[in-house]
Design a protein that fits this description.
The complex is a heterodimer of chains A (475) and B (489).
Chain A: E1 3-14, H1 53-65, E2 69-70, E3 73-74, E4 77-80, E5 90-93, E6 100-109, E7 112-125, E8 129-132, E9 137-140, E10 147-153, H2 160-176, E11 189-199, E12 209-214, H3 217-236, E13 244-249, E14 254-260, E15 270-271, E16 278-279, H4 282-290, H5 296-305, H6 310-317, H7 320-329, H8 336-354, H9 365-377, H10 382-395, H11 399-405, H12 415-428, H13 430-437, H14 443-454, H15 461-474
Parallel strand pairs in A: 12-13
Antiparallel strand pairs in A: 1-10, 1-11, 2-6, 3-16, 4-5, 4-15, 6-7, 7-10, 8-9, 11-12, 13-14
Chain B: H1 8-16, H2 22-35, E1 41-44, H3 46-54, E2 69-73, H4 100-107, E3 111-116, H5 152-159, E4 165-169, H6 176-181, E5 185-188, E6 209-213, H7 216-226, E7 256-260, H8 261-265, H9 270-285, E8 289-293, H10 297-301, H11 303-318, H12 336-347, H13 350-363, H14 365-392, E9 395-399, H15 421-424, H16 428-431, E10 436-444, E11 447-455, H17 460-474
Classes of the chains: A alpha+beta (475), B alpha/beta (489).
Chain lengths: 475, 489
């Protein structure tokens, strides 16, 4: 029997706003534990939530990019449950009226594009971070109250690859709207998946299994495909799929049982009485959309139009800081593709070797452009330009100083100039001509070397070699 | 007569003329607080108050609160000063920030001399449920009668002449009912007029900052200081603050005042009825138009259950932070659930736990529609009815309570068959968030009786205008245990 998988994704995106969702505490990464905390974040009695305007603007931009209907009145609800990581004993979220509803995104599938529906996007706050030890738990409230967007897809995804592409599409949107870093490895984008299978043709959904703890885009694909296979095996051997929560175990490449789900928890939702309904004017919503930074897809189209290959464009766009650097450098080169090549090969190699991020790269886009232009219009070879680049990076000098220090001069390809050097060298080396004519090909290399020496390396060696062969024939 | 028995305006004059100093007043207030035997205080801020008062040496003639001692209910967050909301679960809690109203009073250089007892976590209306035990009514030295609650200690502080004003909070009637039992002016403005930031929440959709004074003028000038938008409270209003005392001396001729017939009819106390009727005549003599209006009695009977459902539901969520992990006593446990269970089981009294159970039950998925959402819809109906009356009238005027303060052996927090509209109508002002003021009417067997005015939203200036006219007629301004009066009604 053949099965069809039905997959839905719930993606939590940590917003990189300056302050938290409802408090004025700073929202930043990797500082000392419990230093970025306002009284509200630890639920001190009497504190009250104040909605972060930038978080709302971000949510509007993401909702718009996902083609959603945007609610012009903000409502918040309390989701009540007792857990040690929840300072207030409830989470402020948007249960009844999410800011965005009914959207979609396209993913690439074999033979074209597939539209995946999105049910909702809502804003909420993160919990505090816990580290469990044998007999105690450490709590870091820096994360408590960090703004989140939750994006819930419809169960319209059919396999692991689609799921990964969907998640990547969401990542690209949240990253390029400036909402989030979108890094699964760092937890700024988290993905819970629901997977069920059913025989082709069956209308009812199969039993749903939730997978948590997936920490990379690749693992979304692997976890789902594993889970589909696992469920298929169960059904084929006459067993039932249990409703349960499983965890992706990267080491073994398997999903592992976390807990069997009984009745769903009753969160006793009710409207948050400390935040009145907030009306968003048409102007406010439109302005949030109009001022939204250029999105991934638009940038990609533009890069392709500049002559970049699809894969080069994707590599540049995989890091928004790289894309920003690329765009800053384009005015300083003849051809955007040359800049892309340098960024993807030489600059990336350097950054990886030195462990430096592009935003900390020592060369300004203008300086890098100056070096690349040497190849584009000043007659320098690719190798010469790379030498200059490396010398500039190693010695913190200008490209001009590097060029002088390396005695790099533009190669001459003018045939008259080359001919003069060639004629002189041949005149001085009759024996070599004879040897060459007698079949000793290696003599040619010696003669080229002599010409390069005489010209102080100014001439193009390929041209020299060609001219030498022609001139020897004439003698 | 001691300085502290002067009216706020007179006291201010004495301070400006340097007939007394903030330090002297503070010392006197603290001495009176210590001498009081009604169990009114959680914490006397002796050191802090004296130190602050000592810095106040240059009188501010245009600041009526300069150097005036006051008391705050123990559910206002006070930086560095223990705050328990009279609950064991907060024993030892010292807040790290000041509530906005505490900060505003600090800025106005009023001197907080003490934190007052209350019903535990502001839930309850008897003044008997705080962790320090019963708070007594200073009008009854035999300690047989309630002062009412939940702002019991604050009411005692002003009725016993310890301070000219005290902060309270009012979720159902927690300022305005004890004001009636204590012969005081009890004010609660429009929801959103005073910031609630730093007020420990009971039921935020109903919670108000309120206060006790001994005259209407003090109530109006206090609102001048306390009112205003606060960026820390999203529900606070952006409306400009008015000069709330500006119309106090204007006549009330032509003002239309509604008396709700069904509530009036539920009054049984003859002394009260007589005095209330007399007050209607007096208001008429001043040119006010009195209208008896009808309100659906089913709605009026539903006030208390509606209040219980909504307030308990919100409360169970608001107090979920008191879990023995961040706040509350740590009583051990093998799992986080056990830690929370042990802390909450020991920290809250039986009455509080009962309210949490009711609140949780009403919010459960299978009950929400039938209980919580139904109560919300009913609240909307109640608000609609009240606003319909106020559309045609300047104010609603009623007895604040059905009698003088009840005896302890007569009161109960539990629902009973005996249901009095007259005992529960003040929460109309909380459901609708309307400004409401209780004023002393007279006495029965030496215990005070009170009345209440309520106006439309943000009509505090009108409210004080009506209240001031009433006060002139009653002759009961500046009433306290130390300054007894009989009144004219």
């Amino acid at each position: 029997m053949n099965f069809e998988a039905v997959i839905g994704l719930e993606i939590h995106v940590q917003q990189k706003t300056k302050s938290k969702m409802f408090s004025s505490a700073p929202n930043g990464f990797s500082r000392d534990p419990n230093t970025q905390v306002a009284p509200l974040d630890m639920a001190f009695p009497g504190t009250m939530p104040v909605v972060n305007k930038q978080a709302v603007i971000n949510a509007i931009r993401v909702a718009n990019a996902l083609h959603m209907t945007i609610d012009h009145t903000l409502y918040f609800d309390r989701k009540n449950y007792f857990y040690s990581d929840l300072p207030k004993g409830f989470q402020i979220t948007q249960q009844a009226r999410p800011i965005g509803k009914n959207g979609y995104v396209y993913v690439e599938v074999p033979g074209g594009k597939k539209r995946i529906g999105i049910e909702r996007i809502h804003m909420e706050e993160d919990t505090c971070k816990q580290e469990h030890f044998m007999d105690y738990t450490l709590m870091d409230y820096n994360r408590a109250g960090v703004p989140l967007c939750e994006i819930v897809s419809l169960p319209e995804i059919s396999n692991g690859t689609e799921a990964r592409e969907y998640a990547e599409a969401i990542r690209n949107i949240v990253v390029y709207t400036g909402t989030s870093d979108g890094k699964m490895e760092e937890g700024s984008l988290r993905c819970d998946t629901n997977v069920s299978i059913r025989p082709y043709g069956q209308k009812e959904f199969g039993t749903k299994v939730e997978i948590k703890n997936i920490n990379s885009f690749k693992n979304i694909e692997l976890a789902i495909d594993y889970e589909i296979a696992r469920q298929s095996r169960l059904l084929l051997s006459g067993e039932k799929v249990r409703q349960e929560t499983r965890r992706w175990d990267e080491g073994s490449g398997k999903t592992v049982l976390m807990r069997v789900k009984t009745d769903a928890v009753d969160y006793k939702y009710f409207c948050e009485p400390n935040i009145p309904p907030i009306h968003l004017s048409d102007d406010f919503v439109q302005n949030a959309i109009d001022t939204c930074p250029e999105l991934y897809d638009a940038k990609k189209e533009r890069y392709l139009a500049m002559g970049l290959s699809r894969s080069d464009a994707e590599i540049i766009l995989s890091d928004p800081k790289m894309a920003a650097y690329f765009e800053a450098g384009v005015p300083f080169v003849q051809n955007a593709k040359d800049l892309a090549n340098y960024l993807i090969v030489e600059v990336n190699t350097y950054l990886n070797k030195e462990g430096v991020a592009i935003q900390d790269f020592a060369l300004s886009p203008k300086t890098l452009g100056e070096i690349i232009t040497g190849q584009e219009k000043d007659g320098l070879s690719h190798k010469q330009c790379v030498d200059i680049l490396n010398y500039v990076l190693a010695n913190s000098v200008s490209p001009k100083e590097a060029k002088e220090a390396l005695h790099i001069v533009a190669q001459v390809s003018d045939s008259n100039v080359i001919l003069k050097f060639v004629t002189d060298v041949l005149d001085q080396n009759p024996k070599s001509i004879a040897d060459y004519k007698a079949g000793n090909q290696r003599v040619l290399g010696f003669l080229v070397g002599q010409v390069m020496k005489a010209s102080h390396g100014k001439v193009n060696p390929a041209e020299v070699s060609k001219t030498l062969q022609e001139e020897i024939k004439k003698r | 007569m001691d300085m502290l028995d002067l009216s706020l305006a007179e006291l201010h004059q004495a301070l400006v003329e340097k007939k007394t100093t903030p330090l002297e007043l503070t010392k006197e207030a603290i001495a009176r607080a210590k001498a009081n035997s009604d169990n009114a205080f959680e914490y006397i801020n002796e050191e802090g108050a004296l130190a602050f008062a000592a810095t106040l040496t240059e009188p501010e003639a245009d600041n009526p609160l300069w150097g005036i001692p006051y008391v705050a209910k123990d559910n206002f967050s006070t930086k560095g000063i223990p705050t328990t909301a009279s609950s064991n679960i907060l024993n030892g809690y010292v807040p790290v920030f000041d509530a906005t109203v505490i900060q505003k009073l600090k800025d106005a250089k009023a001197v907080m001399i003490a934190k007052a007892t209350m019903d535990e976590l502001a839930m309850g209306g008897t003044g008997t449920t705080g962790h320090l035990g019963i708070t007594y009514n200073p009008y009854d030295p035999s300690h047989q009668h309630e002062i009412g609650g939940s702002s019991c200690g604050s009411a005692v502080s002003v009725a016993d002449g310890i301070v000219p004003f005290a902060l309270g909070s009012d979720t159902g009637d927690s300022v305005r009912k004890p004001a009636s039992f204590a012969g005081l002016v009890g004010t609660k403005p429009t929801w959103g007029r005073i910031s609630r930031y730093g007020l420990f929440p009971f039921a935020p959709s109903l919670d108000h900052v309120g206060y006790f004074t001994r005259d209407v003028y003090s109530a109006a000038v206090l609102l001048d200081v306390l009112a205003g938008r606060d960026e820390n409270d999203s529900t606070s209003s952006t409306r400009p603050v008015e000069k709330y005392e500006s119309k106090m001396n204007e006549p009330i001729a032509g003002k239309k005042i509604a008396v709700i017939q069904e509530i009036y009819d539920s009054l049984a106390d003859e002394t009260l009825l007589k005095a209330f009727n007399h007050s209607l005549d007096v208001l008429k003599e001043q040119g006010a138009i009195i209208d008896f209006v009808s309100m659906d009695s089913t709605l009026l009977e539903s006030l208390y259950p509606t209040y219980m459902v909504i307030s308990c539901a919100e409360a169970t969520s608001n107090d979920a932070n008191l879990d023995g992990i961040k706040f509350g006593p740590y009583r051990g446990g093998k799992t986080y659930q056990e830690v929370m269970f042990n802390a909450r089981n020991e920290g809250f009294s039986e009455l509080i736990k009962r309210r949490f159970v009711i609140g949780s039950y009403c919010l459960m998925r299978e009950n929400q529609e039938e209980l919580f959402l139904r109560a919300q819809r009913n609240r909307a109906k109640i608000v609609e009815s009240v606003n319909a009356i106020l559309k045609d009238h300047d104010a609603i005027y009623l007895a604040a309570a059905p009698s003088v303060a009840p005896r302890f052996d007569q009161s109960s927090d539990r629902l009973s068959d005996e249901y009095l509209m007259a005992d529960n109508h003040l929460c109309l002002g909380n459901f609708a968030g309307l400004p409401s003021i209780t004023l002393p009417l007279g006495f029965e067997n030496g215990l005070p009786l009170g009345v209440n005015f309520m106006t439309g939203a943000f009509q505090e200036t009108l409210l004080f205008q009506l209240a001031a006219a009433f006060e002139r007629a009653s002759g009961l301004a500046e009433l306290s245990v130390r300054n007894p009066k009989e009144g004219n009604l």
